[in-house]
């Protein structure tokens, strides 16, 4: 099975889409996918086959901290691989954004979330999921940079990014 993940959709506790990340192909949109998922009676299985869509689609679901994570694939793919990927995504989000994972944290840190999702899956093929490897490639602005970035001084812009060394840029 050499299937690919087509998209990851995240919904808040009111089932409003807060993030859709497309990896490959032309997957179902978040607004189209949710009603198809919800028409299955509760408790819903974690893997649903939507035969009436074009193309027929597998939907993998996971609920964490009142957030609904849906992954789609229209090709045959190993289910345990996808569920492991979902758990690793949640772990990475909590590692970078802090626990508990909240919708507002995902929305406010979209730049970090997008970097994480892009590094973890390349064109639908799962790649870097180890936390230490992600820390090396995902750039995160440090707390000092956020503090100085909120100070407005005429004629000066301070940017501090923490990666391997502390760098202060003054314009």
From TrEMBL:
Its domain of life reads Eukaryota
What Gene3D superfamilies does the annotation carry? 3.30.450.60
For this protein, the record's CDD domains field holds: AP3_Mu_N
- InterPro entries named in the record: Adaptor_comp_med_subunit (IPR050431), Longin-like_dom_sf (IPR011012)
Spell out the protein name for this chain.
AP complex mu/sigma subunit domain-containing protein
Organism of this sequence: Fusarium duplospermum
